[in-house]
Amino acid sequence: EIIEKVQRPPPLCRPAVSADQAPLECIHLMKECWSEQPEKRPTIDQVFDQFKSINKGRKTNIIDSMLRMLEQYSSNLEDLIRERTEELEIEKQKTDKLLTQMLPPSVAEALKMGTPVEPEYFEEVTLYFSDIVGFTTISAMSEPIEVVDLLNDLYTLFDAIIGSHDVYKVETIGDAYMVASGLPKRNGNRHAGEIANMSLDILSSVGTFKMRHMPEVPVRIRIGLHSG
């Protein structure tokens, strides 16, 4: 019931303490601590100093112990908040990285900001498509995890290659690999050359690629380009 009142003012829920129940300095300090304006609330250190001033050297073991406990609790709470904030930042970076892997950076930023993403028209673009020759047969002769390892190894190799070209990986579906150049960043008339050079590099790398579970079986890929 008290929590409900504190959470949903007005009226402000505050204890009534008469002057004969505590020193006036303590009552004044208590009122400062529950101020609605955070900047007007004293810090734990200031509370500690004021209590020492109020007590004027008298033995106050209980109060000192209480204040030390509050001070320690405040310090522990700050450390916990800092730790949780760091964990949250790490998770946010993971989410941002995953989002930029799935979508163009400009689109990902717009989605994070909550703004609508307007479709764009690109006049000059070259697309690359490739798949694995005989993938259905290879899959039939392999365990599911072996197929996953094959695709992961092959497309990790492709991802490393496209990093040195002005291209954007659109997606991979099964054994299909799709790349574009000229979008989402326009590059004039260089898109065809970028995709062509990338294709030759991929072909060259596939020539020495070996499957883990069937190293004696050569891997061949079928590549198609469309420029316009």
UniProtKB/TrEMBL annotation:
Q: Return the Gene3D superfamilies for the record.
A: 6.10.250.780, Nucleotide cyclase, Transferase(Phosphotransferase) domain 1
Keywords (alphabetical) are: cGMP biosynthesis, Coiled coil, Disulfide bond, Glycoprotein, Lyase, Membrane, Nucleotide-binding, Signal, Transmembrane, Transmembrane helix
**Where in the cell is the protein located?**
Endomembrane system; Membrane
EC top class named in words:
lyase
EC nos? 4.6.1.2
Which PROSITE patterns does the UniProt record give? GUANYLATE_CYCLASE_2
Q: Any idea where the Guanylate cyclase domain is?
A: 126-228
Q: Name one GO biological process term.
A: receptor guanylyl cyclase signaling pathway
* Name assigned to this protein: guanylate cyclase
Q: What is the scientific name of the source organism?
A: Pitta sordida (Hooded pitta)
